[in-house]
Amino acid sequence: MKLPEYDKSDVVMCYVSTKEEADTWWLLQKIMQDDKLLAVPRVDGDMMEFYVLDDINQLQSGKFGIFEPSHECEKYVPKGGELMAVPGVKFDESCNRKGHGRGYYDKYFGKYGKDSFYKVALATESQIVCELENVKEHDVAMDMVLTEARIIVAELEADAEK
């Protein structure tokens, strides 16, 4: 909530967390309370899209048992510059991300442009490793990783090494 990117954003794209991920249920409520447009993902076929959520009660159990917006919600088409909270299984000190293995976020970034979003991964310290193995060219790194203990920004760490 204290990030300047959050303050500047009229739209926040945010995942709905599962038990294995950093909790976002409180964040979804806060985004709506702050009168920001909230867009959450839903998987349709082998693609993921984001939909505008007006009320937490519009969430229903979807694919893989993950809560998703109902089919009554309006599709959100990104305009560029949106703040996006991104889930993952593991992250590294360079802000690389390992997802759940189905590639939904990487495909989404491929469709709309990875640089169109300010990508913030929400994680716990237990999900952070020094370096992820097998990072592929199509894997999209985050702009920032937030944990309960720190903020990891890849560019700042790279500058500090110079």
**pLDDT < 50 stretches:** 156-162
- Classify the fold: give the CATH topology: Rossmann fold
Under CATH, the homologous superfamily reads NagB/RpiA/CoA transferase-like
Cα separation of the termini: 31 Å
- Beta-strand portion reads 25-35%
Which sequence of strands runs across the widest sheet?
6-3-2-1-7-10-12-13
Oligomeric category = single chain
Helix and strand pattern: HEHEEEEEEEEHEEEEH
Give a quick set of tags describing it.
globular, disordered C terminus, Rossmann fold, 4 helices, three-stranded mixed sheet, alpha/beta, 162 residues, eight-stranded mixed sheet
Notes on the protein architecture:
This protein is an alpha/beta fold and 162 residues long. The protein has one domain: Rossmann fold (3-Layer(aba) Sandwich). The chain contains 4 helices and 13 strands. Strands 6-3-2-1-7-10-12-13 form an 8-stranded mixed sheet. Strands 9-8-11 form a 3-stranded mixed sheet, with no helix packed on it. It has a two-stranded antiparallel ribbon with strand order 4-5. A hairpin with a 2-residue loop joins strand 2 and strand 3. The longest helix has 9 residues. The relative contact order is 0.17. The C terminus is likely disordered.
